[in-house]
Model the fold of this input.
Amino acid sequence: MSSSINISQVDRIYTDTDGRTVQALKNVDLDIKAGEFISLIGPSGCGKTTLLRLIAGLDKPQAGQLSIDGRKITGVDPERGYVFQQGSLFPWLDIGHNIAYGLRARGQLKQKKAKVGEYISMVGLDGFEKSYPHQISGGMAQRVAIARALINEPKALLLDEPMGALDSFTRADLQDKLLELWKENGTTMILVTHDIDEAIYLSDRIVIMTPRPGKISRVIEVDLPRPRHRGGIEFLAMRKEILELFELAQAQPQPEYNI
Amino acid sequence: MNTATVKLSATVKESITDKPKAAWNYKNGAYFLLKALLTVSGFVIAVAVNIFFPQKAAVEIKNYTLSIFGLNIGLTMNDLYRALLVGLILIYTVSAIRSLADKDKRKKFCKNAAFRSALGLALAVWDIGGTKLQIFAQPFFPGPAQVAEAYLADGEYVLQNTLYSLRLYSAGFSCGVLLGVGTGILIGWFPKVYYWVYPVLKITGVVPAVAWMPFALTLLPNSFTAAVFLIVICAWFQIAFLTAQGIQSTPKQNYEAARILGSDPVDLIFHVAVPHAMPDIFTGITSANAMAFTTLVMSEMLGQPGGLGYYINQSKVWSAYYKVLAAIVIMAVLFSLINHIIGRIQKHTLRWQEGVVKK
Done:
């Protein structure tokens, strides 16, 4: 029920409207083990979302190759679920139909109808089947988005800052929910985040990326025992370590004036 | 600290003493009863005026025989007018009783009371100035009872013409909606179609549909299809325009999410783009509907063997302005009804929108 993902020598260059090129990713190599929880972390512009979109098949690299279980990734596939930052629910469908979307689109709704209720309870939204997205909170909406992705039983779940727009209490809550779902389903998890605490709390490994050009600067193994404590001494030590890394990883300080 | 608590308890006390005094608003039973009486009072006065105000002007009061369910009933125009007024009184009474249980309906009913009452009074004044004394310019402003007389004199004929209009409208408008939504989807989805069709739509769309009438009348086999054609094109352009706009404004993220969940392109059109465009489609339908009414009546007046517009034209020739008014009343009721039905469908379809659904 989980997949390993191999990324080798990937380049992605964007050209903006003025013809300038931006190297979003340069020479990226990464092996993600089956069932692993991995976080991509880094300042904005480091290409972490670009990398996630490449894994999803929403975008194609100019050079290099991405493969899943040895097969080349050529386009989107329900085997790789995706949770957007926010606002990706279909506003015209109620929660039940949003979650059932994948089953319906793949013609499996009839056989697997019972699963819809099951996934609604799994993310703790019983009684909200008939509510519309604008009627529920941001945290609930993200839980719906996660359930909607999981109902397709993906072998890998790609999460693009799914908790970025939530307050810290809702965020902590959802992080625990995510760990619970990961434990239950064994899916490979790839999380894009800019929250160091979140990365340490959730991941097996943290991939640190730096911008201009976007590349992987370091991969850190998080060998803290689970369940982890957000205030534990080891946790804080690791946090400090990563923060220091970021200060080092940062480019030369820019002068605050222009001549 | 101490003064604050004292102040707080004082306000609490006030609000407690306030409570038993029932507020003088729609929640109060007596207030509601008064409003209900106010609502029907205008119509009661209108009935009273029709019965008791002396008929001064020389207006012939004919007796018509109606046969309903095999019964022959003799009726004058005043009888019908009174029956209609009593009908209104009954409708508002039932509406008052039905509003009793629901807070929102109660509030709305009370709010409408003054207007409805004024409506009744206006009918009474119109009756006096029109039929009873004929102080308004005749034959342009007959009284309300005379307008009702048109239904007695021409009942069956009016009904036939109404049905003709309805047939024309439903044939034209339903085709227009289907074609409009269809073309809109194609324009919104396929860039090639957009390139070739959109400019044509943009330029021809501003031309009022009736301008095409000479072509419609000569090129199409009969006047009915010609009028249907005119209604179709007036609805078509408007709806296609807005549908295309709604489809094109679908956020990219919606498509991406759907594709990852397993949607194929056909699925993307019908389960992402079209639902997203629904609010725009309905905007198109509502505005096209108003234009379709105009086109309908205009084309009936200019070249149809039937319909309410035709009836108006024909009555005008005989200076039967009471019949013109009778047709206008039917149009007002019929078109409001159609608008209401479209509104209900819209409300149901767009129940997912913020502000449409109540928590």
